[in-house]
Design brief:
homodimer, 331 residues, alpha+beta, 60s Ribosomal Protein L30, Chain: A, Phosphoribosyl-aminoimidazole Synthetase, Chain A, domain 2, four-stranded mixed beta sheet, globular, metal-binding (chains A, B), transferase (chains A, B), ATP binding (chains A, B), thiamine-phosphate kinase activity (chains A, B)
């Protein structure tokens, strides 16, 4: 129950969430919202829950929490080749929530919703005796039968990743309360870049159409490249040969690895990349790279799909060390 | 993180949730599910979050918790005139979850999903330091432009409710830990009926088509008849004249009110009915009643819509007492 200093459920929705609603949200005044996929389109549906203390720090900037809650869902839609159409939010507010917190949260959420053209169409607001808990279900449109699957990778396909890998996991160390020694070796700009990559992941929405046209399989990298690649290979029942030296790293990530070479494993296995892992047939991958480049998103080939379900052969400098941690898990 | 005695996230999904998945869930092996509305149909989207200790007792039977989490969403779809098509579930499991709990939860959830023809198409499983938290987003299909709104009630329309009112709120008292004196005046069958109405609400899915054809406005009653009627009147910018003596009560509810006449207010204002409140024009309401009767669902006229935004005039025995509590709030 809200106390006298705070708005009730309906004022709260009217003040902070109704401004994020699209036409399908019906002003958040009804029991339901509407999705109207165009003729010949299907609706891609994805859902992610985030819990304070598990997926983010409870005292993270509320605008960053709002941004990230939607970003991780938009990242899934992008990987599936889908254009964002809308989302619903359920939010369980802890006892000590404040109106200022909620206002900033809604502002961060709304900023990405507007940027991505993905309005709020419904949701629910409840209270909890536990930590802040968010659940977003996001909707995207794809031409019927064209959703990009995890299971489509074929032997001979080229394996590619978008952007740079490892920034999110390194950024978590930079941003978190216990900063390792190597953080001091970075300059302010490098620290800021990595922390921002953790706090404000940029969903690769602009890649959706290129993936839908040229990719044989795709997923977003949320639990680390190594672990998510293993999931894709398992779903596709194929193996891969990956050149770790080809995995793209940002300048700040390279600086961190120079300070502590053991961080390479964190970059390859840590979570929170929100980049795209995809495969494309030999005859398609250069078109895919070119289409991505039109949106200023680099796509880098890092290996090949081979036969042999689930088997990965890593080459390159870090290959000998193995991966002690495997996939990152938020569970 | 799961300990050694419990399945990990992927085993858990494979063992307990994949069996609930429909074709659009893609075996819960991808990052997203698919909705394929038929040509000329729109997707109605509704979401409800439930928190242990707020919406249900933490030690309620897990199968009942699973049933209810889906039921409250299907109730919204029914009120909107939509046929259930699928749902996504995000679940935040508390530290002390057990495999047995989860198995029973999934069984209760799956029983209603199967009965309603509403398969699981995706979701997310995370851990929390707080109470069990569930969020379900459910999808239904309506012919384009035919979703039944809250805002469609017009002066002269007849106001109707489905089933019987107040059983859920009375059932909460019967089921809860602090049993009031009147509970002892009921027999076992009456107590069982009311508790079951609280634990296993029956969404009025079979009413959807009749509402979509004949109703001018509808919503489900989740926060009490009096409070939810006020919301409908506000959205429709109309008033109503309601005969409280006409509000349908079940036999066990009548027995409770005989034992303690003051319970009438609880019946009219308490939550957890999951019945349908609707309006229909003079020329349509008998067709609506007849269509509902084909599915063995009684619809009872309880009053009329009048002009005058938000004004309700209650008549009947309880009308003089006023409503001290107004709408029930889970927030």
């Amino acid at each position: 129950m809200a106390d006298n200093q705070r708005p009730g459920e309906f004022e709260l929705i009217e003040r902070y969430f109704a401004p994020l609603a699209g036409p399908g949200g019906l002003g958040l005044l009804d029991d339901a919202g509407l999705l109207r996929p165009g003729r010949g389109y299907e609706v891609v549906v994805t859902a992610d829950a985030l819990v304070a203390g598990v997926h983010f720090f409870p005292d993270d900037p509320p605008a960053a929490i709002g941004w990230k809650a939607l970003a991780v869902n938009l990242s899934d839609l992008a990987a599936k080749g889908a254009k964002p159409e809308g989302f619903v939010l359920t939010i369980a507010l802890p006892r000590n929530w404040t109106e200022g917190w909620l206002k900033d949260f809604a502002a961060g959420l709304g900023r990405l919703a507007q940027q991505a053209g993905c309005p709020l169409i419904g949701g629910d607001t409840v209270s909890t005796s536990g930590p802040l808990t968010l659940s977003i279900t996001a909707f995207g449109a794809v031409p019927a039968g064209r959703m990009v699957r995890r299971a489509g990778a074929k032997p001979g396909d080229v394996v590619l990743v978008s952007g740079s890998i490892g920034d999110g996991a390194l950024g978590l160390k930079v941003h978190g309360p216990d900063k390792p020694g190597w953080v001091a070796a970075l300059d302010d700009g490098q620290r800021g870049f990595l922390a921002d990559r953790y706090l404000h992941p940029q969903p690769r929405t602009t890649l959706a159409e290129a993936l839908q046209r040229h990719a044989s399989a795709a997923m977003d990298i949320s639990d680390g490249l190594v672990g998510d690649l293993a999931k894709m290979l398992k779903a596709s029942r194929v193996g891969a040969e990956i050149d770790l030296d080809a995995v793209p790293l940002s300048g700040p990530a390279r600086a961190a690895l120079m300070a502590d070479p053991a961080l390479a494993e964190l970059a390859w296995t840590g979570g929170d990349d929100y980049e795209i892992l995809c495969t494309a047939p030999e005859g398609e991958y250069s078109s895919l790279i070119a289409a991505a480049a039109e949106h200023a998103v680099p796509l880098t080939p890092i290996g090949r799909i081979v036969s042999g379900a689930g088997a990965v052969r890593y080459s390159g400098k870090g290959a000998a060390q193995g991966f002690a941690h495997g996939s990152f898990s938020h569970f």
